[in-house]
Amino acid sequence: MSEQSFTTTVSVDQTPKEAFDAINNVRGWWSEEIDGDTDKLGDQFTYRYEDVHHCKIRVTEVVPDQKVSWLVVENYFDFTEDKTEWVGTTITFDVSETDGQTEIRFTHLGLVTEYECFDVCSTSWGFYINGSLRNLIATGEGQPNGRGRPRVPAEELAN
Question: What is the pLDDT of residue 148?
Answer without folding.
Answer: 52
